[in-house]
Each structure stands twice: as structure tokens, then as C-alpha cells.
Records
---
Amino acid sequence: MALIVMKFGGSSVADAEAMLRVAQRVVSTHREGNQVAVVVSAMGDTTDDLLDLAAQITPGPPPERELDMLLSAGERISMALLAMAIERLGVPAKSFTGAQAGMVTDTSHGHARLLEVQPERVRATLDAGGVAIVAGFQGISTDDDITTLGRGGSDTTAVALAAALDADVCEIYTDVDGLYTADPRIVPTARRVTRLTIEETLEMAAHGAKILHLRAVEYARRFTVPLHVRSSFSDQEGTWILVGRPLTEDTMEEPIISGIAHDKSLGKVTAVGIPDRPGAAATVVGAVAKAGVSIDMIVQNVSTSDAETSDISFTIPEADGQTAVAAIRALQDEMGFADVLYTSHVGKLSLVGAGMRSNPSVASELFAALADAGVNIEMISTSEIRISVICDQADLERAVRAVHTAFDLDAEEQAVVYGGTGR
Ligand code: ADP
Ligand code: ASP
Ligand code: MG
């Protein structure tokens, strides 16, 4: 008998019919003799709809405690309906809010981090032969308030629950048949990847492949939780995310491209003419971090205006553009730099795969493919298993398709996107 955590995303439970289909799937896994804990997201676009509602009530940013209270309601609706659907099929089921399931978080509303998972009630339900359903994306803070884990956070709930229950596998059910070499909504000929290492998955998730919440992948690595990403709409095998890549003789020394991730919601800030002295980068970057904005790619070079100064450019989430610019402007007098420039609508393409660094041809092929597609590269960064480039957002989707083809990743068949709006 295995213990399985099954997580269903919003598109898998978008309406009553979908909910009943998911219930069937849960019940058949249970009837095969497994213990089953389910994590469920809000139905369809409920979270976005609740955010829109809040925006109609308050002109500015809503009070964060109340926003979390509001958003957590989306997952409550799903968990109760799914429990009813499973009961109807003759299997006892009990739903639990994040708080009831023992998801204890810190107090940072909107992006709370899990501190501890105490799944006693979930465990008791499983031991009594029932199915436990846990609301994803939410927890209870050390101050006893309801918190949420950030958009896409139900994946993290699922992995954390799987780790706490010592589950055999955490199955992530979504609206595509697994992890593909690129987002199938952008590249219809994307190829499904059957197995991927956790490191490659981390790079894909960190650089925009929203199929998995980054923190879920980090958690899975830390607690060695096997992940199986698959569709709730089909019986396809999906993608297994493994701790070590299975090497075969012919692939051993080859650079292996596992996929292309893209992120179309970035902005770029440049502080121009910073006096070239030790500590300058630390001050600039420190100020942005202190404002709560996470910096992604950083480039420093000799200023275009003179040789005594340098320019520092970095990318940030587009939504944080104004906050980051204000944080840098506040330093302008003290540091004596010339100007702060901001570009919104910046896109990032990341090519992920093992053996990148030791195979210089990968970078040159990537740049050549972008040049052929007429895409201008604004920034470049590399890691052992990734090369990322920054370009204009308007060029991004074309760039992803061109690079996908240049690296021979196109499949014969088109990938199926079963549902969801991709929001
Ligand atoms: P869920 O509602 O199940 O959590 P998400 O919308 O969060 O689903 O994630 C699934 C979506 O992720 C897919 O519909 C697809 O558009 C997108 N996606 C982005 N990159 C990839 C990729 N490399 N492989 C598969 N899907 C991807
Ligand atoms: N419902 C939340 C969201 O839309 C959490 C999730 O779906 O993972 O972001
Ligand atoms: Mg998701």
C-alpha cells in the first residue's frame, strides 16, 4: 500500500463536472489500495476573480490580512465540493483548511513561508480509511492569522504535505500532459519530457515555467519527494522528476537540452554613472532588496559616459518596477550617480540543460538562432545548466519558438492543452 498525495490545479476543478471527474480519479487511486491525501486549488480563475473584486472595493493595495482571508476562501470552496463528490462515490472524505491541516507559516501575508507542517488530522483521516482533502495555497501564521503562500502556491502545499506524511509520491495534476521542452501554449510542437532531474526542474521553475511553483521544487529537493507531473484530463504517463539523471552511454558527454523557460513579466532598471568604487554594487542592490524586491539578473559595466564610473542594470518582476526605481532614486544624492532608467516589458528566455558550460557551442548556437530570428539580446547570464538572455517582451514568443526549432526540440505531434486560460 502506497501513500499518495494528489494535487489538482484550478483548471482541473474548474466546474462541477470537472470536480466529479477528479473525484473519480481520487476514488480509483484509493480503491487500488492506496492511502490518498488530496491538495486542491481554487476553481478555475477564482483567485483572479477575488483579486478583481478586492480591487473594486479598495482603490489602493488592499489590507494584506484581509486579502489573505479573502483569497483563502477560493480553496475552501474547492475542498468542500471535492469532499462531497468523493463521498457521493462511496468513499469517506474529509476536507481541511490549511490551518486545520497544520500548515504553520511565518507572518508575511501574500507570500508566507511554511515553518512547520503538523498533519495529525490528515494522518488520522487516512488511517481511518478515508480520503483527506487539504486546501492548497494557505496556512496559519505564528500570530494565528490566515496567510497565503503566493500565486501558484498549492504546489508547495502538496509537496510539504507529502514530505510531512512521508508519502511515496507527490502527483501534480494539471492541464497539460507533463513538463514539456517549452510552454505548449507558446510552442505547440513542444515535446513532453519523460524524466527530468530536480536541478533542471528548479532552473525551469525559477526562470518562468509556471507549471511548478519554484518553492515546491525547492521543497521537493530538500526533502527528496518524488514528483510526478501529469494531466487530470488524460491517462498519459506524464513527467517524473528525479533526484539523479539516468545516464545512458550515448548521452553521457552530450550537452542535453531539457527545455526552454520564458518569463514575460520583467522590468529592467539601470543606475547610470555610478562612481566606480568598492561597495557601490552592494549599496544599490542592498537598497532594492530592502524594499522587498527580488533581483534576478545583474550586469555591471563601464559607463557609456566616461571610464571613472559604471552602470549597473538589473531585472526585477515588472510589478515591482516603481518600488525598485524609488529605492534607487533615494540613493542618487548620496552616491552621486547620474540617472536611473527604467524599461518595462522586458522578456527573458532561458535554455536549460546539463553540460552547458563545458560545451561552448550551445551558447553560440543560441545567439545565432536569436540573430536569425532578428531578436536583439540586451543581457546574458549563465549557470552550469542554464543560459538566459533578456530581450524585448514583444520578441519573446518568437524567440522561444526559434530557439526551440534551432535545438531540434520540435515534436512531430502538437501538444494538447486541455483547459485553463493560462492566466
Ligand atoms: P494549475 O492550475 O494546474 O496549477 P498552471 O496554470 O499553474 O496549472 O500550470 C500549467 C501551465 O503551465 C500549462 O497550462 C502551461 O501553459 C504552463 N507551462 C509553462 N511552461 C511549461 C512547460 N515547460 N511544460 C508544461 N507546461 C508549461
Ligand atoms: N489559487 C492560487 C492561485 O491561483 C494557488 C494555486 O492555484 O496554486 O495562485
Ligand atoms: Mg499552478
---
Amino acid sequence: MPTVDVALGERAYSIHIGRGLLSDPAYLPARLSGQPVAVVSNETVAPLYLQTVHESLLAAGAKPFAVILPDGEAHKNWQTLNRIFDALLKQHCERGSTLVALGGGVIGDMGGFAAACYQRGMNFIQMPTTLLAQVDASVGGKTAINHPLGKNMIGAFHQPSLVLVDIDTLATLPQREFSAGMAEVIKYGLIRDADFLHWLEANMSRLMARDEIPLAEAIYRACRHKAEIVAADERERGGRALLNLGHTFGHAIETGLGYGVWLHGEAVAAGTLMAARLSTLLGWLSTADVARIERLFAAAVLPVRAPALGAERYLQLMRHDKKIQDGRLRLILMKSLGEAVVSETASEAQIAEAIRECSQKLTTDL
Ligand code: NAD
Ligand code: GLY
């Protein structure tokens, strides 16, 4: 059973990766015994996995209760967040109580933000059930909700005390969601691990068939990268920003189309190709490199063209990016495949050109 440790001193925690973890109370910490535990999930995931988690928590001596939220990115907002606070208060939760986030990145981000705010910070455990959440969102303590003007704009850093990645949950994940998660797996290869990128190219058809052995390896390697990056730069003052490859463009797609129209991972894939194209305009990547990325995304059934929102609209949306400093847009670009940098080098005209080239034939259809 592979475990990845996130080395954050007094906030250190483990990511356990394997099969059948949700049904095994041995993975739950002793401190849950006798305590109320809020299991935050949604209308889709709860019917699949809530009972299993509930039974494990009971076996660990905890007093679980469920908070079931509506499903979807469009509900990642204050109204939904308040439903978690209502339930925590009604159940007399204390700061020492625990919140479990059982679901994808939306539930993880919202549950984590509720845990960060409730009585100024309560214990929380991530039980991610999408590929995207297993390889990225559940690790590293970024929690947030969306604002109509920008994605993930209201949030906090609040680390979980444990992450349980139960690979069995991927069996019920719809194909489109699985592909979206693969965009974040590919991201690690593009930003810092050319060997992993090569391995992904060689194994993508087995991964897309959800072959358990390469899938577990991909998740493990992705979590190791995420843990290393977070341990080195928890608050994104440096290298953690590289995890945002494709995200500035991608967030513009998500906000511009309306939350939930394109999945986060789909928007990241199209955004990564814009970043790649921009990297060629700066003389860093070759067109052959961009074609290689495009082939890998296509093999993962991800979009290789972005919606045609218009370059001006993209730029307007991108000006809300959290990486902006002193009003200057900072983008994650690639010097080569496997080496990303934070860059302010590109002019607005070059950014607009990359946007136009990657979105010119586009519709919002995938
Ligand atoms: P999601 O949480 O919306 O889940 C995708 C869909 O799959 C939902 O309909 C969900 O109900 C369903 N689902 C989840 N698990 C399932 C399962 N096992 N079987 C069947 N259906 C299942 O989306 P996501 O892609 O997991 O996460 C995207 C969110 O994560 C975005 O809001 C993004 O901003 C956030 N995110 C956060 C971080 C971070 O570091 N905190 C990193 C990346 C993304
Ligand atoms: N997903 C980006 C980060 O965790 O920093």
C-alpha cells in the first residue's frame, strides 16, 4: 500500500493510496473515537460511498453525520457553504471535531474551506473520489469557493490531517471526468518530470482503460510530485505556482462559459495548449513539442482547442488571476517539456496571438 508523506512540520500528513481504503477503519485516526464527524458529500457520491464511510467511522468509534450538498461547480458558492456551517452548528461540533470531505475537488475545496473557517479551523480529512481530486485537489490545503467574477477567489490555506485515496472509487467515475483528471496528471510531467511525460505517452491507452497497475503508479507519482512541491512552498510564494500551468487560461474558459460548462480539467488542457503555443512564440518550445502535448491530450480524450470567447474577453477574465503582482500578469510557461517557469516575458499582443491560434476553430462543444 503506497503512502506519500507531505512534510509540513506540525501540519505534516500522509496520503494513503490503494484499494478498499474507505471500508477499512484501520486507516482512521484514533482521535475520531467518541467525536462527531461531519461527512460532507454530494447527491451523486453519497449514494455510492457514504454508507461505506459511515460504517468505517462507526467501527472507529466516531459519531458520523452526513451533510449532502447539491452536485456541481455551479454550487461552489457561499449559499452551499452555509449549509455546511448550519449542519456543524446544529450538531454542536467543536473545533476538535472532524470534517470528512467525500467527493471530487468541488466537495474537497468547499469542505476544506468550511473546516478552515469553522471556529477558526477544525480538523479535516480528504477522501477524494475523482482522479483529479486524487492527484491534485485533495493534497496541499488549497480550499476555496468561486465568486461570479472569478474562480476560487474566496478561500484559505488549510491542510487536511489525512488523505485516503481509494482507487476503487474510480470504477464509477464517468469517462469525461476521468479524462479531466488525466489533464492534471499530465501537468506534472510537463512542469517538472520529462521521464514521467514519456511514461504517460507510453501508457496512456492502459491508463484510459483504467488498468489498475499503471493507474496506481500514475496516482502515486502525481501525489509524490504534489507533496514535494507543497512541502517546499506551502503558500505559493515560489515553485507551487508552477502547478497552475494552463490554469490562468483555463480559469478564463471556466468563468467565461459559466461554471460547470467545461470541466476544470478540460479547461486546463485547452489552457495548457495556449501556454505551450505562447512558449513557442517566445522561442522556448518547438512546434513539434506542442504537437506532442496535443497528441497526449487527444489520447486522454481531452479538448485540444479552446472555446472562441475572443482574445479580449480572455484577457479581461485573466486579469482576475491570483498570480497577478503589481498589476502584471504572470503566466506559467514551458522552457522545454518537463521544465516550466513563472514568466512575465510575454507581451499582451503575444498572449492574444496564442489565444487566437488555439481557439480560432472553436465552439463550446467538445
Ligand atoms: P467535481 O468535484 O465536480 O467531481 C466531478 C463529478 O464527478 C461530479 O459530478 C461528482 O459528483 C462526480 N463524482 C465524484 N466522484 C465520483 C465517483 N467516484 N463516481 C461517480 N461520480 C463521481 O470535479 P473535480 O474534477 O473532482 O474537481 C474540480 C474542482 O477541483 C474545481 O472546483 C477546481 O477548482 C478544484 N481544484 C482544486 C485544487 C486544489 O488544489 N484545491 C486543485 C485542482 C482542482
Ligand atoms: N492545484 C494547484 C495547487 O495546489 O497549488
